[in-house]
Specification:
Elements lengths: L2 H11 L3 E5 L2 E5 L8 H6 L1 H9 L8 E6 L6 E4 L2 E3 L2 H17 L10 H10 L2 E5 L8
Antiparallel strand pairs: 1-2, 3-6, 4-5
Helix pairs in contact: 1-3, 4-5
Amino acid sequence: MSAALELIQVVEAAGGRFKVDGDQIKIFPKGVADPLLEELRQHKQEIIELLSQRPKVPPGIKLICWEPKVAPVKISRRSMVTNVEGFVRTTLAQLDAQLRGWTWLAGSWGVQGLIDRLAAVGCVVEIDDPGRALE
């Protein structure tokens, strides 16, 4: 495991969230990464590269783990995913729609079903907004 990935994991385990803005990294909440600032600066470019490989996650959803599986991925007895990144983008959009109450855009999937489908391909998420209850 690279030093940059370890730093990302340490910050996220402490409750920190990253936002890449061009060639800058912003970490929220402020202060959570203060003890690691010098190490983060040393590995800045690699951290930006690693973070840019992650899927864009809609507001209210927190990315817990991004370890995409290699396609094809069998997610049920009758379903096979051949494009993991496309599947993740689509499923995150469905999850966002379901959380906004736009159930017709989520297909026939409920919140927990969508979360489970994402986990099956290596994208573990949780609902970040406690006001949004799971089914």
